[in-house]
Amino acid sequence: MAVPKRRVSKTRAAKRRTHYKVVLAAPIKDKDGTWRLPHHYNKFTGEYKKK
Which of 5, 19, 29, 41 could form a disulfide bond with 48, CB atoms 3.0-4.6 angstroms apart? Predict the structure, then answer.
C-alpha cells in the first residue's frame, strides 16, 4: 500500500492544486445578433446547428 513517508506541506499541496480550474464556456454570437452558449439552442429563433 502506498503511504507517503513524509507529510506534504500546505505550500506543496497548493501548488499541485493550482492547475484545477473551472473554465466557463464563452458565449457565441449568432447571425441574428443574439448571444447563446455553445451546444445550446437559440431561445429566440429556436434554431440549433442552423436547423
Answer: 41
